[in-house]
Amino acid sequence: xxxxxxxxxxxxxxxxxxxAWLLKEQGYExxxxxxxxxxxxxxxxxxxxxxxxxxxxxxxRRVAAMLDIPYxxxxxxxEFKKNVIDYFVTEYLQGRTPNPCIACNRYVKWESLLQRxxxxxxxxxxxxxxxxIRKLPNGRFALQKSxxxxxxxxxxxxxxxxxQLSHTLMPVGDYTKEEIRGMAEKIGLRxxxxxxxxxxxxxxxxxYPGFIEQERQGDVPPPGNFVTGDGxxxxxxxxxxxxxxxxxxxxxxxxxxxxxxxxIRPETNEVVLGSNEEVFGTILYGGRLNFMSIPDLxxxxxxxxxxxxxxxxxxxxxxxxEQDKILCQxxxxxxxxxxxxxxxxxEDDVVVGGGTIL
Length: 358
Description:
Layout: E1 5-9, H1 14-25, E2 29-36, H2 54-67, E3 71-75, H3 77-93, H4 100-119, E4 124-126, E5 131-135, E6 141-145, H5 162-166, E7 168-169, H6 177-186, H7 208-215, E8 224-227, E9 233-237, E10 260-265, E11 270-274, E12 280-291, E13 301-306, E14 314-322, E15 325-335, E16 342-347, E17 350-357
Parallel strand pairs: 1-2, 1-4, 2-3, 4-7, 8-11
Antiparallel strand pairs: 5-6, 8-9, 10-11, 12-15, 12-17, 13-14, 13-16, 14-15, 16-17
Helix pairs in contact: 1-2, 1-6, 3-4
């Protein structure tokens, strides 16, 4: 019987390294691939913690050699520029706070890699994400939270399509991080104790406004006014790309009490400040919807919603108000509902779907 072929996206980290080993142990024909996404040779991200830089390629290549599997570097520069970097910049310019990892997962790590993998005869692609894929009784594929809540990555994967899920394997989702590191040590993988990648890989210094200014060659929103919700001027801000909802640090304004960013108004170039209480809300609207465990939202549902990666989740009711627009009403106020971030809905530990906060 012919072995099923799987292309493993290898980031050079411990999770994808062990994913490749697990799949080989399970009897698959495994091929390792690292996605080259840096834009120029001089911009290679050589940070030890980068998931897509030069050190990642070297680590992945050595792991593949040790596992005795074929290994390739595939160029995804143009896909990454269009779907991740350009999107990231555009969202910030429009006063929103994007999530580039979600865009990268959907359009680069899955859509582009899956297409190329199918062309070379692969049956599946696989990654080292902490998530599980279930085929539900209704025939649909959905993500299920991983064995470890502490590392669960389903939030960042809510946007995957049915076709992508049906051709994906996520072998590390059944284990804790400690178990994965333990396996890596046991089989002698050089990545066993490598630190996890942090923050946004293409901005290693985490200077988002500086990166945006560089991408736009200085064509960025100018300084403007800090205002109260009713328009009273409080001071001057550095430009809307410097701020996100809920932010307190770096405002450079003294009010005698703690103030936070409560709204960004790109049309008037204003940043609204308010008290901590004003950062909380009970309603959000979501668009650019993707449903997973159900074909569509045909009735009001009670779910748990996560509004950012490290949010524990909160009970809410959701209903469709337009074809691509959802209303989410929380039982209790939640902090910093941020336009541009993802809202992801769960029923127990299964992803119902999600969208972008409007």
